[in-house]
Amino acid sequence: MSSKPICVHCCHCSECQKQTGSAFVLNAIIEADRVEFDGPIVENTLPTPSGKGQVITRCATCGVAVFSSYMARLGKLRYIRVGTLDNPSDCPPDVQIFTSSKQDWVQLNTEIPVFEDFYDFAEVWPEDALARWNTLFGENA
């Protein structure tokens, strides 16, 4: 990533659990033009609970998911899998979402905002993140 992300989600939804084989996923949301990667990729389109779908971009060599793009924002945003970064500790979560479906044994960090489902960006994101979103989409978050 050529800059810090707009926001980092820790998503506990059941679909992320299935897709990652883990209890949650950490996604760093960033503008597509701020993402650089090397090597061959493959893309798979998967369903989402919203019905809109997402494209998962994987390393063609090892198959690991590197980032995803939701169909509604395709080409503008990337949801980078934080664990694939050279320094994943640089991207701690800003918000915990869909905690209504989290695994019972997962302990939530009370210092990070928690939402049972999704949330209003304006409740969590700082002004600079909202401005970046508005630049991309010409709308309020």
UniProtKB/TrEMBL annotation:
The keyword Zinc applies. It comes from Pseudohalocynthiibacter aestuariivivens. Pfam families: GFA (PF04828). InterPro entries: CENP-V/GFA, Mss4-like_sf. Residues 1-106 form the CENP-V/GFA domain. Gene3D superfamilies: glutathione-dependent formaldehyde- activating enzyme (gfa). PROSITE patterns: CENP_V_GFA. Belongs to the Gfa family. It comes from the Bacteria. The keyword Metal-binding applies. Keywords: Lyase, Metal-binding, Zinc. This is GFA family protein.
